[in-house]
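Handoff note, outgoing to incoming analyst
You'll be picking up this chain. Sequence as last confirmed:
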Amino acid sequence: MQNVLEELGLLRIIPIVSIQNAIHTRPLAEALIKGGLPCAEITFRTEAALDAIHAVAEMQDLLVGAGTVLKVDQVKAAVDAGARFIVSPGFNPKVVDYCVKNEITVTPGVCTPTDIEMAMDFGLKVVKFFPAEAFGGLKTLKALSGPYHMMKFIPTGGVNIHNLREYLAFPKVFACGGSWMVKSELISAAKFAEITELTAEAVKVATQTG
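Most recent structure output, in case you need it:
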């Protein structure tokens, strides 16, 4: 579990993927790798999610996780398909409990002090701050980090190339989640060269920050 977190922390950016057709999975993965970001959080927002997770997991050179996980059955299905980490938009105690007990890396969504304290009760040290920009962005995150200085955050929701540097410069930010380099319309249109270009741009910002 710790090794996966270490990998995510080194990458500093987690591409959040909503894929409509699993046929695009491998070229998407290759585009991310070429851009210098061998990671993908494939969300349960489409019916192609499980097939996409399985296809990426078979490649073995890209860290794949499952996002928008809302129930334990989805955790089980994602892990069976090869997902190495689980991300949820909110704090679901059943999902977190299952993941912790089965030593599955999980970063649940939080946006309030209560959420953070629930995460601490489960021994979590890294959580997702979502929806980041809608809940006040970096200003709110800095306020939350005062009493909860022991926690690291993955801001997601409204993070893009324009504010990425600012988020990553804050020491309590573990990594950032974003979809701007892997927008669904780019994937569906098979614009993988553009995805590689956008990914490389994000990686350059990350390597120059912090």
